[in-house]
Amino acid sequence: MDDSQTLIFALGSLLGTLGQLAVIIACIILVSKRKNTATILMLVGSVLGLVFTVLNLSGNILAANGGVESLMTWTKIFALLGPLPYILFGIGLLFYAISFVKKGNG
Predict the structure, then answer these.
(1) What range does the domain containing 44 cover?
(2) How far apart are CA 23 and CA 30, in angstroms?
(3) Closest CA to 27 of 73, 79, 78, 89
(4) Helix then strand then coil, % of the chain, to nearest 5
(5) Structural domain count of the chain
(6) Please, what is the average pLDDT of the chain?
(7) pTM value?
């Protein structure tokens, strides 16, 4: 892989991480203003999303050093666990939206 491709992948990862940090900051603000199950689930999901991003990257690097079989095992495990943060965030957002509409704000 040449340097320009590596730079493109690195910039893409950086932009994704900046987006994740923005969502985490927004969730922190929400939790500080309205601490309830919905906002806490969104915060936990967004923080876990960032943690899982780092785990996936580092896990891929470590697993690749162990060979193809090790990398495939890691990929399978992460394929099952990877969506968890998004599920938590989505459930929290759904709860928040339902409570928002019930209050007559929508």
Answers:
(1) 3-102
(2) 10
(3) 89
(4) 90, 0, 10
(5) 1
(6) 91
(7) 0.84
